[in-house]
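Handout, page 2. Input:
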Amino acid sequence: MIYKKAILLMMMGVAPLLCWSQYRSINWENLNSASTGLKAIGQLKTASSKDLANSNWSVGCETLDRGYATFENYKPYVGELGVKYARIQSGWATCEKVKGKYEFEWLDKTVDGLAEMKVSPWMVLCYGNPLYKSGEKLGARIFTEEITMKAWLDYVRATVKHFKGRVREWEIWNEPNLGDNVQFAPAYASLLMNTVKVIKEEQPEAIIIGFALSQTPLNFTKEVFELMKSKKQEKILDYLSFHPYVHNPDEANADIDALLALARSYDPEIKLYQGECGSPSALEWGHALNQYPWTEISQAKWNLRRMANDWNRNIRSSIFTMVDLQYPNMLQSFGLIRTNLEHKNIYKRPSFYAVQHMVNLLNASVTPAGPIAHQGSSTREVTVLGLKKDKLFGALLWFSDRIPSDDISWELTDITLSNTSLKQPVYLDLITGRVYEIPKHLFKQIGKDMKFRSLPVWDSPMLIAERGQLDFVAGQDAHQSNMDILGIMDIKK
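Output:
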């Protein structure tokens, strides 16, 4: 009997450990155990969406209309991230299952749930409806038939009328330059102009976001603008949105600049919105950036580099996506939170913390100061972007010449920043949120420039900043707890 009791006690003790090990975030542990060689002196403070001042950051809460994720399961973590906006999709086929009857209850839960956390939803009016012989999936042909267009516009009017007190920003369709849109630009131009007219009739103060381009196609964009111009409607948009999925996020910058120049040749006031972009955290055989061995570490680096580049260009930016999405052919791995096939949360990926830290760092009080001229000892290309409040107080820097790697190591680099003066600089790793001391013997003011020696640099943004301008908790070892193993909570339920 004593022997049986001992075995039972051992099994009771081992069971929680087995459960814990199953849901551990090994990559997060490895990142927090890695050393830059500098002394950690604190942890960047983070605040929720309720406590942060307004900013331009957004996160993706898409595909709920097709049941690829469950909003209620991850709702609290959207506010914890600190973003002020979330992209959602309306789903015509889900809202109108019987002709002329609209069901918005499922969408109300998402809109109101986001509002509870002080996150403003911006809604994509998108995809067809089989009731009107129009496909409901990404890439389905955009309709031009009069009967289908009328049904679409009735749906748009009903949706805007229902949500106009809670949603102000409307995006029209999603990636209309994909799939079997045999008429492509003419079909989308017609849809766009007709839809804007109805939105403005119901909600004159509405903000209109158009295009939602896959990548940054200039020819398609130009053709749509030309068709709009022929109807004197080339200035009906507030934003042109685009989705720049490129393996090296820094390589998209030239195309983004060209897209803006093209758009402003038609409407000098139009702005860009990076409306959907992110990285997988595993090798995938479908969807964007597939057939490449991504990891949770390279994903975090990718997201930070995309965010830094968007912010530097004063472009509103939305990270795709909040959780892994259960597509019909696979469980996608783009989520900031890892989920399972039951839509349950397992753990926050390193990318969750990376995005959270960037959102909190680049809040409404911080503005871009543009690229900083620099010279360094590394053979690799380094991007350096200035941050300012009243004046320059810091610089983001990273190796930008290659696809983000999953390597957890830094290159000790000498670098001189032009027209930079910091009295007590500290160093921040934006993935872990650790703040490091920079010893006095490793930096020196040389006239208007500042030279740093043996600074650890890698292919993810790090921040040099004036200590007094960085909001962090000092006196800690800066080791972020790995207690956010979300799957444990789901198991207990």
